[in-house]
Structures are given as C-alpha cells and as structure tokens.
Amino acid sequence: MPSTELSVEETMGGANSTAREYQSNAPVKQVIGNYSKVIGQKEERTYTNRNAVRIIVINAIGHMAVLEDKDKSYYSLPNGIVAYDADHQNAGEESVKEQLGCEVVVYEECIAAAEEWRGDLHQQSFCYVARMMEDKEKTELLSVEGRDGLQIMWVEVNEAIGMMKKSKPTSELGKSVRERDLFFVKEYDRLLWSGGLRAMYDDWFKV
C-alpha cells in the first residue's frame, strides 16, 4: 500500500535525466506530455531513493483537487509514496482515497514526471490524471477539511495555476513542491487545450 505524505511539503527533482532513465526506474506504461522536470542538482553523496505519484483529480464539473496547507503557504496535488515496483494506477487510487476520502479512476498514461535531488533524498515523481467517482452534488463542495488538517479545495485549472504561482513557501522543501506541482498542473492544462488528452476523455465519457 502506498503511504501518503502527511504534509503538503514533498520532494522531486533531479539532474539531466531522460525519459529512458525514468522508464528504467519505475513501471510507467506511457508518457504523453513533456516528460522530465529537474529540480536540484546531484552531488557527491549517498541518497535515499524513492518514487511518488502525483494525481490531478477531476470531479464531475471539471474542477481539480488542490491541497492547501495554510501554515506553510503553498499548495500541492494529492500524492503518495510508492514502492519501486508498484502499479502506479493502483497506488494513485489508494493514495487519493486515503487523502481525499473519495474513489477515483486513474488514467494509465503518465502526463509528466519530475526528478529531485534535495538534501539526502532523490525522488522521482510521476503525474497522472484521475476521474472522481462520486455524484455531482457531492463533488460541488468548494472546500472541505481533509486528512491531517490539510484543506481540500476544488478549483478550476487556471485558478489552481494562479494560486500556486502566487504562493510563497519559505522552506526549500516547499519551494520544490511549488515548482514541481505547478509544472504538472501547467502541463495538464497544455495537454487539455492541445487535444493531448482527447483519447482519455473520449474513453471516460463514451456512451
């Protein structure tokens, strides 16, 4: 089972990574967007390696879930740490259920990835899109309190981008989270408008 992170603070980044390197380190089936984002720089030290999934959860009215940690002044996507050989779809669905308290279906294609070197941690994060499996009335809530005091906000994609851009994290960890998750949301928005996600939405909403 994946372990969701207890704070909006997280990790990612890397140095000069390629799609091939990513695919050799995690069970990613297919990538449809700009694959890599590098944060931080690899140094001559021993690192702890881990993989994570980041999930863009879309509800029945097209809004996405954003986690707000008011004490740390930044926003994050629903997420979870996953085992090296874990199935990312299953891990993402379990993580979202634990963090948001709702059932989702995660689309199998990874839309973007990021690698981070921060302190003694080396993390690779993989972003997926998920559809919320709830009735419309329940998904129209704009803001509810989630696990560990994190505020769950349902906002339009452009609003999420604006919120993340304006956030001012004070820790190095928070700055990494902001850079990574903003990249993921912007990439989702780009794919949405360019038609890169058409196959996914056609599959989701076919009669």
From TrEMBL:
Domain of life, source organism: Eukaryota
Entry protein name: Nudix hydrolase domain-containing protein
